Amino acid sequence: MSKLDTNSHSVFLLTYHLILVVKYRRKVINDTIANRIKEIGEYIAPKYNISFLEYNHDKDHTHILFKAHPNTEISKYINAFKSASSRLIKKEFPEVRKQLWKEYFWSQSFCLLTTGGAPIEAIKKYIETQGEKR
């Protein structure tokens, strides 16, 4: 099991897998652009109590594994990250603009998955058996 995080009032381990897809699934992400996307995400992350654990990409999407705190507003972080990275990537890499028709770099949708350690059935069983004699 991973080391638990703490703050003044709680102990937690909150990890997420975020997948962001380029608008129209355009294959515009190369290694240089991917590294810049990662830099932007990592720069914004501390403001939202988020830390990157792993990052990788394909030509039309990125994968980010990150840790968060209970007070993290994940949707606000995702929106800030998508907005800043979209603006900066289009500004710093003008060739990307030619492949996207509108102002957007990212698709409006995203995939966010929790990555808890125990299978849901094991947790259900544990909760069901609380208070029973062993």
TrEMBL record:
**NCBIfam families registered for this protein in UniProt:** transpos_IS200
GO molecular-function annotation terms? Answer: DNA binding; transposase activity
What's the protein called, per UniProt?
Transposase IS200-family protein
Where does the record place the Transposase IS200-like domain? 11-130
Under the heading InterPro entries, the entry gives: Transposase_17 (IPR002686), Transposase_17_sf (IPR036515)
SUPFAM superfamilies found in the cross-reference section: Transposase IS200-like
Ranges in coiled-coil conformation: none
Q: Which GO terms describe its biological process?
A: DNA transposition
> Which domain of life does the protein's organism represent?
Bacteria
